[in-house]
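Record type: monomer structure entry
Structure origin: computed from sequence
Chain ID: A
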Amino acid sequence: MGGNVKQKSAAPRLLRLWEGAGILAAFFGLIPPVFYGIFHPGVAVMLLFALALWMKVLFLSPDRASRLPALRRWLKESKAAPILHRLLSLALGVGLTVEGLFSIVMIQAGWFHPPVQGQQATAVVLGCLTIGDQPSRMLRYRLEKALSYLEQQPEAMVVVTGGKGDRETCSEGEVSARWLEEHGISPDRILVENQSSNTRENLELTAPLLKQAGLGPQVVIVSDGFHQLRGQLYARRVGLEPTGLPSKTPWGLLPTYWLREQMGICKALLLE
């Protein structure tokens, strides 16, 4: 008797958990397009995840679809519904497991691979969107982190990277260089890479700049924490020895960019 009571009381809690997770996923999926005008694959995946969670709720409790009588009837009577429910549960389980494993590696690279004490390493600021002749919020956070490092390491050089995208009027590298100069960094300490169009090219074009300047392969990748793993991967491929300095990310953008980055890592590992 007591076991049945516990089972019945657990069911509503489980439904509330799935519903809450679906609402949270939809919330973070809508923030980038609604408040920042940004839509990328990570946003699409987050919204699909929210939809999958809500479908899970309906499979568990068809009466939640009371305003859609045809759907409620199908969920209760169709022989295919239990099969689709099991497939959905399997997909969610596999997806969450893979995402969790990816996240562990990303966290390790992003926040537990700091610059080596006493080592003279060149800061490399990975490119990010600019707005006119000013850095976007995310790029400004990267530059603020680089500025702090350069002030602590007065002999260190910095490479600012990024070309001019379709929606940009100035190259990311030039905007970043100007911002650092305005904040007290001597132009003699700044190398500008202004031809790249993605993270891989940021590092591929940085490597020869370092050689031309007579600098060693030790670099500190300055970018968002979620971006560090891929940046360090590309750096190693071109013979550099990277550590990471993570900049902060706007909280409303982090979940979808995190998912997008995992797709970028898969591409880097499997296709590039």
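Annotation 1: The first strand starts at residue 122 and ends at 125.
Annotation 2: Strands lie at 122-125, 130-131, 134-135, 158-160, 190-192, 218-224, 241-247.
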